[in-house]
Amino acid sequence: MNVLFLSDGISPYVTGGMQRHTFFVVKWLVKQGVSVMLYHCVEDNTELVTTKEVVDKMNLSSSEARFLKTECFYFPKAGKLVGHYIRRSKKYSRILFKHWSKNQEVYDFVYSKGFCAFEFLRKRKSGLILPKIGTKLHGLNMFQQSPDVKYRMQSFMLRPIANYVIRNSDVSFSYGGKITSDLLKLGVLEEKIIEIPTGIDKHWVSTESLTQVNGGDKLKFAFVGRYDRVKGLPEIYDAIELLPMSTKKLCEINLVGPIPAHKQIMNDQVNFIGAISSESEMKAFLSKQDVLLCTSWSEGMPNVIIEAMASGCAIIATDTGAVAELLGPDNGVLIPTPNPELIKQAILLMLSLDPAKLLQMKASSILKVEQKFLWSSIAVKLKNELERAVNLD
Questions:
Q1: Pure H helices in the chain
Q2: What is the mean predicted confidence (pLDDT) over 23-49?
């Protein structure tokens, strides 16, 4: 099978959950013997990435590497007018289409992230014959709840192009949960939705934290992410302030990420760790935590939740995107919205648990990862679904 993979960047050359997902999908398709031509990009102030660099980052063997080819482009520069991201995305899609049309290589399927397939879909609608096109808009965040007016306006602006891409694709990839529900509401037929979770490599799985609750006298809570309003960090701050003083002394809250100093709070229970870029350091950090806080306003299927689960953490998270596919009462607390009072109550519930019950939750997290969210098994299903999609009417 020969796949053209259109992406808006790949980890570690572009930072983001979508880019990290691209890294693993491409890696594991190649490991399954699928021939992949990857189109990806970097910002214009960095060097273009070679195929060898990507192969080395994916740690592919020589026999696997022969299935991967890459082309790297510069993502168009940002303008100053409102809506520049949409214009940049459309221009980038035209760059990808122009490169493909110049080379006229034949593919069985086009797998596209975000809005990368926009120009391909537009050309096909005007009569050009193209292979089947499947698109993945990850969490469909533009159709999820927003934390404020600014994000609500941005979502409204993104909806027309998102609708165009979704409605003109042959298939839509979904993580499941509310993302599938949103696709159905947008008019996508059930048989044209391919549910594939994201995953993690097996080496992430660790049972080190199952011998005891890590914090000892204090339960360790963790947040991992950048300071983005949609990640709900202000609501976590408010929830911490709502905790009774006697309870605060029972917990330690560790925040990891590039959180600006002026966005940090002064609190004896809160530690700002800073960014962790090394995978081994992140594994070491998460293995020493008890509960992950991921109370975002909108998400797809966050890598950080799966990483924390694999490291033996219970989870407190918002019921958004496909998060409910990852956790339930057996390994965490799912709250409907990132309301500070609800976050506080979830933290109090975790603090009230018998240590044996919490250890049981942590073990359940690891078991779920091993059963459902390892790339070695997800990749087999993905390959089968791609082969099925090629033959869809």
A1: 17-31, 51-58, 62-65, 84-103, 118-125, 149-167, 178-185, 233-242, 245-248, 279-286, 303-310, 340-352, 355-372, 375-390
A2: 96
**CA angle, 117 then 306 then 16, to 5°:** 40
Question: pLDDT tens for residues 285-307?
Answer: 999 999 999 999 999 999 999 99
Instruction: Work out the mean pLDDT of the chain and round it to a whole number.
Output: 93
Domain 2-199+375-390 and domain 202-372, same fold? Reply is yes
DSSP string, 159-196: HHHHHHHHHT-SEEEE-STHHHHHHHHTT--GGGEEE-
- Contacts of 353-357 spanning 24+ positions with Cβ under 8 A: 355/212, 355/213
Name the token pair of 38: 């990857």
Average pLDDT over every residue of 362-369: 96
The class that CATH gives domain 202-372 is: alpha beta
Q: In CATH terms, is domain 2-199+375-390 a member of 3.40.50.720?
A: no
For the chain, the structural domain boundaries read 2-199+375-390, 202-372
